[in-house]
Amino acid sequence: MTCYDRQDLGLLLLRLGTGGVLAAHGAQKLFGWFGGGGIEGTGAAMEAMGYAPGKQSAVMAGLAEAGGGALLALGLATPAAGAAAAGAMAGAAAVHAPNGFFAAGGGYEYAASLALTAAGLAVTGPGRLSLDNALGHAVNRGWMVPAALAVTGAATAVVVGLRNRRVREAAEFGQETLFDEADAVFGK
Question: Which phi and psi angles does 135 have, rounded to 5°?
Answer without folding.
Answer: -95, 15
